[in-house]
Protein 1
Amino acid sequence: MESNPVLLESKSSPINLLNEMQQLRLLGHLCDVTVSVEYQGVRAEFPAHKAVLAATSKFFKEVFLNEKPMDGFHSNVYLHEVQVADFASFLDFVYTARVEVEEDRVQRMLDIAEKLKCLDLSETCFQLKKQMLESVLLELQNFSESQNPEEESPARPNIGPMAEAEQDPPDSSIATPGCGASPEGLDAKSKEKM
């Protein structure tokens, strides 16, 4: 009797794999490439794994597939005009599928994603920039509507008796509150106007 095939699939395995690779990178274990980045005299070196970089970046994939076998197992890649903080964030993203950056760095992250041909990071940055733009446009629209309430409703909004009394220029026959006049006197004057 033949049994039907069943699918064994782990939902946590991809996340666990990424977490373990990140831990190996942070500890410097099994790293087979060092990426040196330099920007305006600031330089740093990042140990990483060729397989992870090649799987997430077409730039690195091309570099590693086209490199000539050296006498050693370890490779070095040099990137100029890449800021240290941006490459560190790039590595965090490719090893964890997420990274937290300041809003003003999103464009720089998009630039590095395009330079290194990392489609996942490019799409993530693009979606975030789109959300940020939509949020700004919504705020501008709300601000514009709050500044121009006449455009929303052509009829003049109802003004209460006190508000109307405050808008009228002072009349010598009407005393203002606090100067011996009673609120009833103001109400009577407001009713006359209505």
Protein 2
Amino acid sequence: NGNAGFQQVLERLESDPVCQRLSLKSFLILPFQRITRLKLLLQNILKRTCPGSEEEVQATQAYDALEKLIKDCNENVQRMKSTEELIYLSQKIEFECKIFPLISQSRRLVKCGELTALDFNNLSPKWKVTTRPIYLHLFNDCLLLSRPKE
């Protein structure tokens, strides 16, 4: 997004009839779609092979290898999404002092959301309740509380 030259080239390429007006994202997703189609193809091959034959053994080995590949791909996609979330969050959150690095290979965001903090002021004759929003960010290794800048 920050590189205007890249954006212009990308728009020109995506509008080119050779690319069938498909976005870059669709070309990046295409290999994953092919892998899942291969899995379906191997399942059909396994249904049609004779039990105990050499073909069945080879098809089973190929199927197992493909399942491992798909699992690895999914794990890597999840890891990248988690890293992107941490990068986005680190850009939004401003620490008064840096206690620990927010972005880490082992850290991932589990859940986040807004809560309302209630402050009771019992110094006045009437109990006065004030509210302010706070945010909880639950990571796999810590809990971070934040509040919007005033």
Protein 3
Amino acid sequence: KTTVSEAERFWRICQAIGDIAFAYAYSTVLIEIQDTLKLSPTENKAMKRASLVGISTTTVFYLLCGCVGYAAFGKDAPGDLLSRSGFDHPVWLLNVANVCVAIHLIVAYQVFAQLIFSFVETSCRQRWPEVKFVTTDHQITIPILGGTSFHINGFRVVWRSAYVVVTTVLATFIAFFNIFLALIGAASFCLLAVYFPIEMYIARSKVPMFSISWMCLQALRLVCLLVSLVAAAGSVEGPIPSLKMYHPFKNEV
């Protein structure tokens, strides 16, 4: 059994708050989804229903993971239940779970990366409009698929492939995945999931300043800001014990 001090337990709780915040920071994707729904009544009803189902499912799923992990391992619960939990049977169940995680990350990666892809490609087209490698699309027809045609751009293929390779290589050097995830959640949660939506709601609904609704929204914003700051502090402090453990001069006096 490992001994966890009260201070370390507190910082781990802060890191867990950051992980939870990351799970709920879906505002960037939500805006893209709303943009594809053209009819206002349909958009309003569909997004309310989707948000309710999505948030409820996420809450139940993460609560189950946290409660089951703590019930099984107590204070020794690992950050990755699939690879560091101490059990390896049944193998097929672990393999299926890992495949599901990989599919989930691949899809999420594509959704979040589209904004970067679009920004870089649009900027390059505007900067070098005379370069055919950047602006020209080549049509390729595949007879096996019934003559289906695809438009391929050389710059797009090279740029996106290089981006995926570089980000994958950088990800392999990140030894503190959960801590890094918590830091991203802490940085994006308050700004994207709380501040901007509240400001848009106040502007759209014309909420009077210093009214009860306005004060409640400001109180919610302040609470979420404190949550983000606590999670960020825990994420920054988290790697310190591990870095001290692997410090090359730790045994020297």
